[in-house]
UniProtKB/TrEMBL annotation:
PROSITE patterns: PEPTIDASE_M14 (PS52035). It comes from Pleionea litopenaei. GO terms for biological process: proteolysis. This is M14 family metallopeptidase. It comes from the Bacteria.
Length: 960
């Protein structure tokens, strides 16, 4: 051993004495870009970009700190710009709005903004008054770049554009600035850019790398596209979950820009795409917006033609989903998307042998920016006139949005309603509270007309006749209208090659996303209303003689209250059946903390008050544990003792960064307790005994080995709660960790699965008259639920149909689902709930796993005239592998594109299952419950699993 050490030391000494021949970068020819990015002359008092960065613009990616430093330096040097921080990222980085104009315009920015607001809210504003305002208004442009952090060329082009606008001494730029206020948002996602720019340093080699498959070009998990929580900020504009988005929305509300530029990147072997979009286009966007898109596109095309650059418009770019940056169009902007081929610092080799440089990609973004600004100058007055006309129509009693109002029904889930109010308030949408009960004609969330619909006092009323009518309509309208020709083309593509016109989800209604019952009222509601005010609950004190304290389980924040109380070391109970203790009514899922469970805790009441105030919950003082009448008492089995959740989430590998991030965000935002993200590649080396909850987010493949699954299975059998989301459920089933099955693999025993379905229905619909149980004689006949099902296809036909139906699975549609309202996983949920479903695993159980939530809401049809022939004859209706009981209808589609084939495939399959495995449990979610941080309805099911799972679904731990 000593000899070996000496050998190593001698070898290292010899190596250290050898000369090191560093490879000079000049040994490798780096392709350079010959065209100048900027043309002067420039003010010598303004520091050029290359001097601030220390390298030529476009030769490297500027880091967020370098961009920030440049902006703050220029703010001291130029009277043509004003730099203002409008938000802070999760990681503490500032997001900046850079106002650029003539010194005279900058001096009167408050007046400019005031006049824009008058046009945007034109109550009592005449056409002549509007004309006077418009005549004096400069054009307002919003130029925003790199909302995806690894799409870097936009932000680098923004730096050049800012310098050019503030330093150029040309008459053209002076004239441009006299006519415009240009707001440049140079770096929309500083956290993602920081992650990616750091990776560029890590993966940079001695020789230039032009292979677009290398890490230098792609980055690594979780990639730089997303922000701190791995959210795609270009999907967040209507959900407003992230601080970057919330700050940006406020600024858009302040300025109502006439154009909004959004600089992106796409595949490295592509060219350059810009607006206008092709169909489908959201019906709430004015038709005239497309005209202006073509006007700007024509000028941009001419500028590219002059350079000999290739480009295209439309093709894959559509404008149906309103959560992109095209969100500004609903407020009156002309939205122009740039999609530049993704070129890394070293350039990208093309099949023809050419190398496209990063500088060229920056130049494309820069020229597009300047061209669009020039076009705006020519048409600003006309755009303002159209903007004023649109806003007047939004407020008119004869407009498209004049005679309908949205109503969100009162709920005990105050935190969920508060989240909706907060979102709509950020969007400048006016809301009111109904002060007396009314009856109105209304349409429910299934778009069914109700002639006498009761609106209770306290209903949240949102008239569609208001300034933001178009945005409001697309956020709250239950079902988006898609043109018939779009459906036809989508059907054609689906059948031809499985492609789609739809770039994103086809459903996004906020009330469905939040799981709040709502209706659309026929008519403008403006009577018996009071504006919504900020409501803050404050528990000042509790009864010191109380034996326990409780919060209402209907509210989602009750789960946070329970988790944080356990984090503080308190023993906590949850109630699985509604009761009334003294004068306090407690719903199923309510959380109770008893003094007897927490001896030697003199500060218990004060700490619980603090927790309740943080969660905005009323803390009830419990004076007796005796349930009124036959309701549960506090010493019985319905008051279950919880175990403190110790949570880990698997990440990296092939786990989806989006779903890992959404899970992480949900834990931090809704629970605020300690948890761990652990590398899936280290699972066999990790000490899983530290955790009692393990979350497996959605996967793009299968990250784990057989030994990894064996390790996890052993952990579950010893008492762990394993929660799998979306395609991770497929992996668990395939590796034998769950007895649930996937739909295609269950068709060979369809009758067993259908029998379980009928059993669930019959258990919930037990007849009142059970006189047969009183008979002495042996009953000679028994009714079996499957006896009347004589038309079920055989296995081969079921498999053939399923193969066909899979072709038509949705890209994102709201499906009605039904919950088991006696299961602890459905605390705080309604019997029927919307679930946003894309092409995801459909779960099946023959009874070996509890199916907590199924797709399709069953209703008894009381009107015999509406019954089908089979229902009238009291026979079940066969739907394939499953059947509907006689006299029952199933509601499936609520919103979005759902082909009939997919609807029949989905109905009656499982979304959420739970099963016991050893002393532990496995919980499967067929689709991600935390979609973009906004799906609060399904997120509640997930929070229940996280926090209540260790106490409710596993074998109790007894301390000796």
């Amino acid at each position: 051993m000593k000899l070996m050490n000496w050998v190593v030391i001698v070898a290292l000494s010899i190596l250290a004495s050898l000369p090191i021949h560093a490879v000079e970068p000049t040994d490798y020819a780096q392709v350079t870009y010959s065209q100048p990015l900027l043309n002067g002359p420039y003010d010598a008092n303004i520091t050029p970009v290359n001097q601030l960065l220390g390298f030529e613009p476009g030769r490297r990616v500027a880091a967020p700190s370098e961009i920030e430093s440049a902006l703050l330096t220029w703010a001291k040097q130029s009277n043509r710009l004003k730099v203002e921080a409008y938000a802070k990222s999760h990681e503490g980085r500032s997001l900046y709005a850079v106002y650029i104009s003539s010194p005279e315009n900058l001096a009167r920015l408050p007046k400019v903004q005031e006049n824009i607001q008058r046009l945007a809210n034109p109550i009592n504003l005449s056409q002549s008054q509007a004309n006077s305002i418009i005549k004096e208004l400069p054009a307002v442009a919003w130029m925003a770049y790199s909302i995806h952090g690894n799409e870097t060329s936009g932000a680098d082009a923004a730096l050049l554009a800012i310098y050019h606008l503030i330093a150029s001494e040309s008459a053209e730029i002076t004239d441009l600035l006299s006519k415009q206020v240009i707001i440049i948002d140079p770096m929309m996602n500083p956290d993602g850019r920081a992650r990616f720019s750091k990776e560029l340093q890590e993966y940079r080699a001695v020789a230039p790398n032009v292979d677009d498959q290398s890490l230098l070009h792609t980055g690594s998990w979780p990639f730089g596209r997303t922000n701190h929580y791995f959210f795609d900020l270009n999907r967040d504009f209507i959900y407003a979950t992230q601080p970057e988005t919330r700050g940006r929305i406020k600024l858009i509300n302040d300025w109502y820009p006439q154009i909004m530029i959004d600089g992106h990147e796409m595949g490295a072997q592509d060219t350059f795409l810009f607006a206008p979009a092709r169909e489908p286009v959201n019906p709430h966007l004015p038709k005239q917006r497309k005209h202006w898109g073509k006007v700007f596109a024509a000028d941009q095309a001419r500028a590219f033609d002059a350079q000999g650059w290739r480009y295209y418009t439309g093709e894959w770019f559509e404008n149906l989903y309103p959560g992109y940056s095209n969100y500004a169009e609903y407020r009156g902007s002309v939205h122009i998307l740039y999609e530049q081929a993704r070129i890394a610092e070293d350039g990208v080799a093309r099949p023809d042998g050419r190398v496209i440089t990063y500088q060229e990609s920056v130049h494309h973004q820069l020229l597009s920016t300047m061209t669009n600004l020039e076009t705006l100058s020519k048409h600003s007055q006309s755009l303002y006139q159209e903007f004023f006309k649109e806003r007047v129509q939004n407020l008119s009693d004869k407009g498209n949005y004049a005679n309908r109002s949205f109503a969100i029904l009162p709920t005990d889930n105050k935190s969920r309603e508060a989240a909706l109010i907060d979102n709509l308030r950020i969007q400048n949408i006016q809301m009111y509270r109904l002060q007396k009960e009314l009856t109105r004609v209304a349409y429910d969330q299934f778009s069914q007309r109700k002639e006498q619909y009761r609106l209770p006092k306290g209903t949240l009323i949102i008239p569609n006749r208001q300034a933001e009518a178009r945005l409001l309509a697309t956020m709250l309208e239950f079902d988006v209208a898609i043109k018939p020709e779009v459906y036809q083309e989508e059907r054609h593509r689906t059948l031809r090659d499985g492609s789609s016109l739809m770039y994103d989800t086809t459903a996004w209604n906020l009330t469905m996303m939040y799981g709040l019952p709502a209706v659309m009222v026929v008519g403008h509601m403006d009577k018996h209303l009071e504006p919504i005010t900020s409501e803050s609950l404050l528990n000042e004190a509790v009864d010191p003689s109380a034996i326990a304290f409780a919060v209402n389980g209907e509210d989602d924040s009750s789960v946070s209250f329970a988790a944080r109380a356990m984090e503080l070391g308190f023993q906590v109970r949850v109630i699985d059946k509604a009761t009334q203790l003294g004068e306090v009514s407690l719903s199923r899922g309510s959380v109770l903390v008893a003094k007897s469970d927490n001896p030697n805790q003199p500060e218990l009441p004060e700490k619980l008050v603090t927790l309740a105030n943080q969660a905005q919950l009323k803390l009830n003082s419990i004076s007796t544990g005796h349930g009124i009448g036959d309701l549960p008492d506090w010493g019985g089995s319905h008051f279950q003792l919880l175990a403190r959740p110790k949570i880990a989430t698997l990440s990296r590998g092939s786990f989806s960064p989006y779903d890992v991030g959404a899970t992480w965000y949900s834990l931090d935002t809704h629970l605020g307790i300690r948890h761990s993200l652990i590398d899936a590649g280290m699972i066999s080396y990790a000490d899983l005994r530290r955790y009692n909850v393990l979350v497996m987010p959605d996967q793009y493949g299968d990250s784990l080995s057989e030994s990894d699954y064996a390790t996890i299975k052993q952990w579950v059998e010893q008492g762990g709660t394993l929660i799998a989301l979306a395609d991770s459920t497929r992996a668990l089933i395939n590796h034998g960790l769950s007895k649930a099955k996937l739909l295609p693999e269950a068709l060979d025993d369809a009758q067993a699965f259908d029998s379980q379905l009928q059993r669930e229905w019959m258990s919930q619909n037990v007849p009142n008259n059970l006189i047969a149980t009183q008979k002495i004689d042996l009953p000679m006949t028994i009714d079996y639920p499957w006896e009347d099902i004589t038309e079920r296809p055989d296995t081969k036909e079921l498999e053939r149909r399923d193969d066909w139906q899979q072709i038509f699975m949705p890209s994102g549609a709201f499906i009605a689902a039904r919950n088991d309202m006696k299961h602890w996983l459905t605390f705080g949920s309604n019997a029927s709930m919307p679930i946003l479903l894309a092409d995801a695993p459909l779960l099946m159980s023959d009874g070996s796993a509890e199916v907590v939530t199924r797709y399709g809401f069953w209703e008894k049809d009381q009107d015999s005239s509406k019954l089908s022939a089979s229902a009238k004859s009291k026979k079940p209706q066969v739907l394939g592998w499953s059947s509907l009981p006689a006299g029952v209808t199933a509601k499936v589609r609520m919103s979005g594109l759902l082909w009939p084939e997919a609807a029949q495939r989905i109905v009656n399959s499982g979304y959420l299952t739970r099963e016991t495995v050893g002393k532990g449990q496995v919980i499967l979610f067929g689709n991600s419950p935390n979609f973009r941080g906004a799906s609060l309805a399904t997120n509640r099911l997930f929070l229940n699993a996280l926090v209540y799972g260790p106490g409710m679904g596993t074998a109790p731990y007894v301390a000796l």
